[in-house]
Amino acid sequence: MIKLPYEEIVAKIVEEAGISEVEVNDKIEEKLQQLSGLVSKEGAAHILANELGIKLLEQESSGKVVVNKLLPGMRSVEFMGKVQKVFDAKSFDKGTRKGRVQSFVAGDETGTIRVVAWNDLVEKIQTLKEGDIVHIENAYIKENNNQKELHLNDKSKVELNPPGETIGEVKVVIPSRNRKKIDGLKENDINVEILGTIVQTFEPRYYEVCPQCNKRARIVPGGVDFICEAHGRISPKYAYVLNVVIDDGSGTIRTVFFKNQAENLTKKSEQEMVSMKDNQQKIEQLKNELLGEIVKVVGRAAKNTMFDRLEFVSQLVFINPDPEEELRRLEQ
Ligand SMILES: [Zn+2]
Question: How many A from CA of 228 to the centre of ligand 1?
Fold first, then answer.
């Protein structure tokens, strides 16, 4: 089912049935009570629309859909956008499901969206780079962590740089996030944003992972070789985690930056991070550089059960955020 936001369903009913928003909300509330606990608010709104004979979605039979009109649940989607960022391909192995996955961000004049390609499609986007135009057919929209994603399966078609096609300036929408004070963070808060200063830094911790599936590799007992549960004896690569303490005036919190996030925070490449593994001098230099930096971090608050403390896990980090923009946000 295509997931329309509640507000949009209400707006459509108001428009098509010619009744007031208050009345629509009352009727939805009534449905909710009738069906006590059986449906969500969105579900009740769908039922009401159905009863009033209102078609919520006029499926456009063909043609490209722009980013801000894409809705979770849509199938057979045609989309064209300009590539903003390409992520590395990854192998995954979850027992019965194994294969490859790669994602990239593409956008148009209305916004940006993450595009996820699976298996054979990964091969087709090997040459993809920033600035390319992608024309996609037969994709579907999924919701992941409250964000829309465009997924490609084996029926999807991808065309790179179709002749004569252009995309205007891509609109970068930074989703409004829930800014919180550190002392107000609670366990399992997700997609929240904190803004503060790094007041303490720790050495990055390195660990061996399988180069194929990125899972933790184990050392063969008594030996020097590493094994991956899925891939056997392997020559490992390194992943790392970097912890810092952030202070925003209301409190402090230990904040965890796993591999890519650590690279974003330190502005260092994977190669640079690995090269400083046994270089104490470089590590000290890095720790010093980070001290006093102002950072905006989007992530989640999680309990570290071993130490019985709340930590913040970074999913997106901005270093030295624009002070004017921050002020504007405070004034809103
Ligand atoms: Zn492996």
Answer: 5
Å from CA of 219 to ligand 1 middle: 13
- pLDDT exceeding 90 applies to what percent of the chain? 55
Structure tokens at 91: 């192998």
Cα separation, 66 vs 245, in Å, equals: 41
Q: β-strands 192-201, 205-209: how paired? A: unpaired
Neighbours of 159 (CB within 10 A): 14
126 CA from centroid of ligand 1 (Å): 22
User: Which residue stretches of the chain have pLDDT < 70?
Assistant: 1, 58-62, 145-146, 174-177, 324, 327-332
The tally of CA atoms less than 13 A away on the side-chain side of residue 282 is 11
**Cβ-defined contacts of 101-105 (< 8 Å, 24+):** 103/149, 104/128
Ligand 1 centre to CA of 239 (Å) is 13
Q: Give the whole-angstrom CA distance, residue 159 versus residue 135.
A: 5
Distance, CA 96 to ligand 1 centroid (Å)? 14
Chain segment 302-316, per-residue pLDDT in tens:
999 899 999 999 998
Distance 235 CA to ligand 1 centre (A): 10
Rounded-to-integer distance, Cα 259 and Cα 187, Å: 23
Question: For residue 49, which of 17, 95, 1 has the smallest C-alpha distance?
Answer: 17
pTM: 0.52
Q: Could you tell me where the DSSP H helices lie in 116-162?
A: 120-124
CA of 299 to the centre of ligand 1 (A): 27
CA-to-CA distance for 150 and 68, rounded, in angstroms? 12
pLDDT digits (tens, 9 = 90+) for 258-297: 999 999 999 999 999 999 999 999 999 999 999 999 999 9
